[in-house]
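Reviewer 2 asked us to include a model.

Predict the structure of this chain.
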Amino acid sequence: MRVTSPLTSAPTRVRRSVPQEIDESTAIGEIYMQSLIRSQLRAALTVALTLVLSVGALPLTFMAFDTVTEFRVLGVPAPWLILGVAVYPGLFALGWVYIRQAEKAERDFAELVQPGRDDG
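Predicted model (C-alpha cells):
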C-alpha cells in the first residue's frame, strides 16, 4: 500500500523577493512603488507650499506695509533687494531640504527592498 498526501498535486508557493515583486508589477510591488511615490510627492508638496507661502506672500506684504516699499538701501527700493537678492538663499535652502527628503525616502525604500545592502 502506498500512502500519498492529497496535496501533492497542489502548486508549491514560490516565495518572491521584494525586487521580484516590483519587477513583475504584482499587487505587492505596486504597493511598494506607491509608497515611494507618495513619500516623494509629500516632500515636493511640502516644499512647494512653503515656497508659495513665503515668496508668494511678499507682494501682499509690500502692499500691506507701505514703509517697506518706501525704504531704500543705497538708492535701491527694498522690495527689489528682497525679491532680487534675499529670496535666493531661501530658494537654495528649500531645494536642499527637498533633495535631503527625497534621498532619505529613496534610502528607506532601498533598505526595504534589499535589507542587507550597504550603500557606504
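Residues 18-113 form one domain. DSSP finds five helices and two strands in the chain. We have added this to the supplementary material.
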